[in-house]
Design a protein that fits this description.
Order of helices and strands: HHHHHEEHEHEHEEHHEHEE
Strand order of the largest sheet: 5-4-3-6-7-9-8
Number of strands: 9
Strand content: 15-25%
Radius of gyration: 21 Å
Mean pLDDT: 94
CATH superfamily of the largest domain: Vaccinia Virus protein VP39
Helix content: 25-40%
CATH topology of the largest domain: Rossmann fold
Distance between the termini: 70 Å
Amino acid sequence: MNIQELRKTVHDKLIKCGIEDASFKTDLLICHILNMSKTELLLKYNQIVDQDTEESINKSMLDIINGKPIQYIINKQEFMGLEFYVDENVLIPQPDTETLVEEAIKRIYEMHKNNKGKIKILDLCTGSGAIAISIDTYIKKQIEQGKMKDLKVEFVATDISEKAIEVAKRNAKLHNANIKFIVSDMFDNIYETDFDLIVSNPPYIETKTIPTLSKEVQNEPHIALDGGEDGLELYRIIARQGFKYMKKEGSIIVEIGYNQKESIIQLFRKYREYVNIKCLKDLGGNDRLVEITVAESEKI
């Protein structure tokens, strides 16, 4: 069987099984296993595929049909124009979360304009490390271009999963990011109290909702999805403890579910240590982030 015939066979089986983006996933899978670019694939349509390779492609095709995300098969996901290693131990970074990175960079720029020469950032529930590493990469570019002259940025990133931290460290090495990774259940192992910015995309799906999600999403680590009975468990922890780890006028930026805006805003309004609580939308016009400022008065 040549590449063209194999491509059609895989594509047709994925379509028959109701797999979304069948063409995209077919090409991604075959390019990965044959170690070819999309252009090479098209130019070598008549190349014969040996039996071992064909069997490997068919096995991975069955994994896709059974709900395994293609990203876990090829161990890659693009985020903020960067390539990240992913496996079954971490949530797959999604384009919607890029809004959080972009807003964090804006906030860092504003802090720098206000004469902050050093900015400390804490990334809670880091998973693959995509958020912290992306911020680090783009801030370094700004510094190199002279747009944030003399700025120093320090990162701490945490996750409850030791295996997730291993993935994040791998990605940090891939992108030459200098980040301190800590295995920690939220703030439990954090002993620094002078952060300027906390960012987080915590688990926010209601426990009862997880079984109703697509097979692909259900194959992602549940610990990175499950936000408790009402989906707000981790936000309560951030609201209750976040200000204790921050400088005055520091900012917290969290990603939220599409229907959680009011509930999360109310969580933070319970504490007088927070001001300027607002919701920000993504490019699709959906409620995506809640941003909070620590009050100027002394923390209590």
